[in-house]
């Protein structure tokens, strides 16, 4: 029985190490997901390959795709667009393969709106776990500094609330192991498998 | 930071092998759950030990506990009560340990009503996956036989809908591995961890 693949979204605050964890997952031997290549309007850099590192497009081409509803998510960053084309993701999911996106939090929010049954994993900075030490510091900081840290922590926790899972990135191999287990387990969720049983019964 | 433990409920249709899978989980080395011992009014059998195999109680004692709301779930089977006392489960969860229940489907329904944030795992017969072959058989069966098989399959699928996960018991070691992964992953669910972050922020 073929099922639709899972859309897996890895995101988290900037600087948390999303790219490193994603690379480690795809470098590991027993992974079984397709990586969705992003599209961008920024200049190709030395050594980069079209369709491997990014799909490189002009600003006009990118905006035409947004207009036509062909982007699953996108954001503008330092004057350039970055985003995920919808077609590849949908085709791959229809083939029953899991698609893995590693994107910024704004993009993850857009994907959540369009694909609520995706698996949303928030990578947490290790120091969020030691929140108190991090915010209060050595007790010698100005109140304004402490308040700013509180604000950032509050923002991170608010972001987290949109996700299904929160994985601490304390050690990359551990984070990789946790994420792989989460994805394996998600395949056994009743709301993902019960439809095929009901369909089989109806067809008889 | 201490968290409350998870209440894990393994159930499924009778004859699916719940007991075998549960034993294999508790015989495995790296499991980390507490097994909740059931209470019963049936006679103690040769070799059974009070507080190990069951808590053995009289019918009056058992009914007094039901009356006092001290049973998490119970059922009557062949003239005897079987059930799960609430106190041990709550104490163990409060200590931050996961509690594992292996119970019948009627009991699982009662637990779901009382502890909706438990992890409910439905063990699926391997032949539910080959539902069509199983129901239609070799194409030589009476219509009434086929209809009865359809009814049973429909019942099993209806039961499954109440659970979070459906794990096929095709091979016991595989089922054990899947269940352990599910439990590990459930610890990373945002709705289980976000509360402690919010609490920490509030306390500062």
From TrEMBL, chains A, B:
Q: Name one GO molecular function term.
A: ATP binding
The listed locations are: Cytoplasm
Cite the Guanylate kinase-like domain residue spans from the record: 5-184
- Main location group: cytoplasm
One Gene Ontology CC term in the entry: cytosol
Reaction(s) catalysed by this chain's protein: GMP + ATP = GDP + ADP
The family assignment reads: Belongs to the guanylate kinase family.
Q: NCBIfam families, per this entry?
A: guanyl_kin
- Output this protein's name: Guanylate kinase
Recorded source organism is Enterococcus rivorum
């Amino acid at each position: 029985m073929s099922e639709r693949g899972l859309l897996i979204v890895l995101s988290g605050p900037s600087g948390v190490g999303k790219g490193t964890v994603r690379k480690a997952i795809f470098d590991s031997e027993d992974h079984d997901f397709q990586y969705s290549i992003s599209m961008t309007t920024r200049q190709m850099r030395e050594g980069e390959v079209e369709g491997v590192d990014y799909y490189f497009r002009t600003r006009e081409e990118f905006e035409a795709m947004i207009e036509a509803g062909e982007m699953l998510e996108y954001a503008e960053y330092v004057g350039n667009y970055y985003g995920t084309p919808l077609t590849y993701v949908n085709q791959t999911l229809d083939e029953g393969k899991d698609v893995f996106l590693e994107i910024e939090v704004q993009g993850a929010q857009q994907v959540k709106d369009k694909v609520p049954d995706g698996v949303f994993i928030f990578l947490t900075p290790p120091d969020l776990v030691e929140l108190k030490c991090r915010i209060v510091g050595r007790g010698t900081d100005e109140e304004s500094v402490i308040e700013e840290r509180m604000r950032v922590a509050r923002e991170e926790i608010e972001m987290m609330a949109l996700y299904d899972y929160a994985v601490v990135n304390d050690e990359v191999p551990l984070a990789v192991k946790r994420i792989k287990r989460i994805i394996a387990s998600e395949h056994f969720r009743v709301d993902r498998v019960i439809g095929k049983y009901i369909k089989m019964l109806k067809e008889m």
